[in-house]
Amino acid sequence: MRYSAAKILWQGLTGNRGWKSVWREPQPKSEYDIIVVGGGGHGLATAYYLAKKFGHKNIAVLEKGWIGSGNVGRNTTIIRSNYLLPGNGPFYEMSMKLWENLEQELNYNAMVSQRGVVYLSHSDAQRDTLARRGNAMRLAGADAVLLDEAEVRKNFPYFDYDNARFPITGGLLQPRGGTARHDGVVWGYARAADQLGVDIIQNCEVTNFLIDNGVCSGVETSRGVIKAKKTAVCVAGSSSKVMAKANMRLPIESHVLQAYVTEGLKPVIPGVVVFGAGHFYISQSDKGGLVFGGDVDGYNTYAQRGGMPVLEHSCEGGVALMPMISRARVLRTWGGLVDMSMDGSPFIDKTAISGLYFNGGWCYGGFKATPASGYCYAHLIAKDTYHPNAAAYRLDRYLSGRMLDERGVGAQPNLH
Questions:
Q1: What is the dihedral of CA 243, 245, 249, 250, to 10 degrees?
Q2: Per-residue CA distances from 136 to 88, 116, 132 (Å)
Q3: pTM exceeding the 0.85 threshold for the entire prediction
Q4: What pLDDT is stored for residue 414 in this prediction?
């Protein structure tokens, strides 16, 4: 069924009895050409682009829970391409361009809203750093506008400009940045992949890999053995646990990244704002709730829940930036399980095991990378060659000394 305004009107007039299931619930086959392990945004995008752009039809996506139960439904929905390093900039700008046409391509309302993303500076040195980043963005084809204090004050009059500890000296604006509806994105990719013949198998946990003489020929699951010519893993915070079943040890730590939402308020924040003096970012949803987040929890965990210290730290950053939000009540919190790489940048690569591919290490950047990650991963799986925009995301880059340390904090995953 193709969605349209006319279809909505007709269904409303006929009692909404003609809607069909968004995707099928097939039984797993005994064998596929390609298995994608992980039914999150990256996994479904990979399957979609394999079918749409590269002509593969016999594909299965295996998800241990239900579609939308992982990180893709547990983030702060921000999309942007304001990166500094050459290995990252073109990739995230590719993702931004895919975001801009995503709803038309999938025929699904992903609520992509390009309201702008502003990074604030609080010193002259920090403003110079943002100017450098803005120049790098423009060289990579992205948009960037350097704001002085007066321009920031005009757009955000409610910030605390008299804060002696955190004075606001300017900011870097990416006008094309913004937000998207996380659930809408994963449902849209699932529906579009299903229409192209991809089998989406929910409640199907991978328990082992079928590996013989260095060749992967499929997986063992909670619903039986499924064979495949190629197996592609993209399971976010569970990467280390899943790849350990193939006797692989990854340079990744898993941490909880919490997010929070307040009660609904009248429109006050036009886009996304990032506090430069601490790790705090905030936007406002279409329902009026303030959606915000901060640092990962410092300890390693595989649990999708966090603790009060990080909530307190995030709220402190918000109140330091705009004291007025201290009166807003936090209604709920959630935690996503993020796979933090040693240099803060991801992996899209073949493994040493023939027929086994890996996508992970996305740290904070997984959601905004969804379209480009799926496209570049599909390119690698289909052609066994790296997409030019993802050529730097190799598993062996630590051996070759080609790290992508975007934040410059070294091999401390919890700081990236």
A1: 10
A2: 11, 18, 6
A3: yes
A4: 83
